[in-house]
Amino acid sequence: MSAEWVNQAIFYHIYPLGLCGAPEVNRFGGPVVHRLDALHPWLEHIQSIGANAIYLGPVFQSMSHGYDTVDYYQVDRRLGDHQTLQRLSEVLHRRGMRLVLDGVFNHVGRDFWAFRDVIENGPNSDYKDWFHNLRFGEGSPKGDPFTYESWHGHYSLVKLNLSNPDLRAHLFDAISMWRSEFGIDGLRLDAADSIDFDFLRALREFTAETRPGFWLMGEVVHGDYRQWANPSTLHTVTNYEAYKGLYSSLNDGNYHEIAYTLNRQFGSDGIYRDLQLYNFVDNHDVDRVASQLNNPAWLYPLYLLLFTMPGIPAIYYGSEWGVQGKKETWSDAPLRPKLDLEFSQEDSHQGNLVDVIQQLAHIRSQSSALKGGHYSLIFVSSRQFAFLRESDDETILVILNSAEDPVEIHLEAPGHVVKWVDLLDTNQSYTPEDRSLFVTIPPTWGRILKAVGTKNNLC
Fold first, then answer.
1. Which has more confidence, 297 or 455?
2. Which of 455, 313, 449 is nearest to 394 (CA)?
C-alpha cells in the first residue's frame, strides 16, 4: 500500500520550538514544560484554512535548535513529554488530520549520549563506530583527542555512520516507538541529500513492511530528485528547484523563470511527471516570503500558483498572515518566531490573505486535475502566465497576472471546450470563439477556469 493519503494533503508546517516560545538552549536539568499543549487551539485554525496534514519540526530531546539531537526516545523537555505529544497526536487524528515528524538521522548534537560515551571512554567506547569517519590521534576544533565528520563544517553537529547495524537498529526502534506511541503518518528526512542511499533503501523497506501507507519525504536542495524519490528510497522530496522561481519570477517581472522550471519538471517531457513534489514558498530555513517579495500584493498570485501547480502545497506557520522574517548572520530565529494565535488573527500583516488561502485550498481539494492532473504550458510573458491541469474527468486552466493593472489575455484554448467557469468567481464564465479565448485578469491575481461544457457533453 502506498501513501495515497498524500495526494489529498495540504500541509501546515510548524517549527514548534519557535512557535511555542521555547528557550533557545536546553538546560536538561530544568523542569518539563508542556508547551506543545499551546498547539491545540491552532488545529481549528489550520483546518479552517484548508490544511489537513501537519509537518511538525523537531520535537525530540536536543541541545538547542532541535536538529542537534540528544535522545531520539525522549520528547524535548522544553516542549513537554511523551504524554504531551500523545495528546496532540490523538486530538489531531480525531480531527482527521495527518502528522509527519522530522527524522534527523544524518547527524546528532555533541551531547548525544553515545557521543558522550566516546568523549569519556575514547577508543574503548562501544559506540565509536556509530560516528562517520571518527579518528583517534587527531584533534577536533572542539578540543577532542579525536576528529570526526561534521555537517557542512559545523562541528556541533556530528555525522552518524548510518551503515553501522547497531546504530541503524537504534534509529529504526525509535521510529517504531514514534509510530506506536504517537501514531505518526510519515517522516520528513532532514538533510536527506547527505544521507547514504543504502540507509534510505533500508528505511523504505522497514517502514513499508511495518506500516503500510507510511510516507517518507526528504529535504533535498540540489541534484536530480529521482535519485532520492523512487520506489526504492523516498516517496518525494522538497521542491527547492521551484522555490526560488516562485518569488523571483514576481520580483524580476519574469514569469518565464518559473514557467521554464515547471515545464522541465512536469511538462510533456518533464523529468518529474511521476512525482508529487513537496512545494513551499518559505520554511524554517529560508527568509519569509513576505520579506522576499518587493510588492506585498504579489502574495496573492504567489499562493494561487502554489495551490495550482503540480505537487503538494505547504504553508509555513504565520505566513498566511504575511508574517515577515529574514535570516541574521548567526541566527535563524527571525524565521521561527513565537506567535500568539489570537493576536496573529487580529493583526494580520496582509489583509484577507487567510481567506484567499482558504478559498484556494477548497478549490484544490475539490479538483482531481489540480491534485494530480497533467501539466502543460499555454502562455507566458513577463507578467502573465497560463497553464492547463488535466485529469481523466476534469480540465482546469490557470491564468496569473502579476501586473498592477487588469490585463486582457488572448489564449488558444483546447478545441473541445465550449464553456469555462471561473472557480474563484463563479459569476464569471467564458465562451471561446472557435479556439480563441479572451479573458480579463484582475491586477495581481488570476483565474482558475474549469471546463464545464464540451462538444461531447454540453452542460
1. 297
2. 449
Closest to 108 measured CA to CA, from 135, 50, 148: 148
Could you tell me which residues come within 8 angstroms of residue 93 by beta carbon, excluding any fewer than 6 positions away? 99, 183
Maximum Cα interatomic distance, the chain, rounded to a whole number of Å:
81
The C-alpha atoms of residue 265 and residue 199 are separated, in whole angstroms, by 27
- Local structure of residue 238 (DSSP, 8 states): B
CB 138 within 8 A of CB 155: no
37 compared with 427, residue with greater pLDDT: 37
Segment 370-406, tens digit of pLDDT = 999 999 999 999 999 999 999 999 999 999 999 999 9
Query: What pLDDT was estimated at residue 459?
Result: 43
**Alpha helix (H) residue ranges in 51-164:** 82-94, 113-121
For 280, phi then psi, to 5°, come to -155, 155
Query: What does the domain layout of the chain look like in residue ranges?
Result: 4-369, 373-454
The answer to whether the beta carbons of residues 19 and 46 sit under 8 Å apart is: no
CATH topology for 373-454 is Immunoglobulin-like (2.60.40)
How far apart, in whole angstroms, are the C-alpha atoms of residue 138 and residue 394? Answer: 64
Tell me the one-letter amino acid at 157.
Answer: L
Render pLDDT for 156-173 as a digit per residue (tens, 0 to 9).
Answer: 999 999 999 999 999 999
Element (H, E) at 359: helix 353-365
pLDDT, residue 2, reads 64
Our CA angle for 245, 248, 251, nearest 5°, is 150
Average pLDDT, the chain: 95
Q: Where do the H-state alpha helices sit in 152-298?
A: 165-182, 197-210, 240-251, 255-266, 289-292
Domain 4-369 bears CATH identifier 3.20.20.80: yes
d(CA 81, CA 61): 10
Q: Judge whether 410 and 361 are in contact, CB under 8 Å.
A: no
Residues contacting residue 169 through CB under 8 Å, at least 6 positions apart: none
For strand 429-430 and strand 417-422, is the pairing parallel, antiparallel, or unpaired? antiparallel
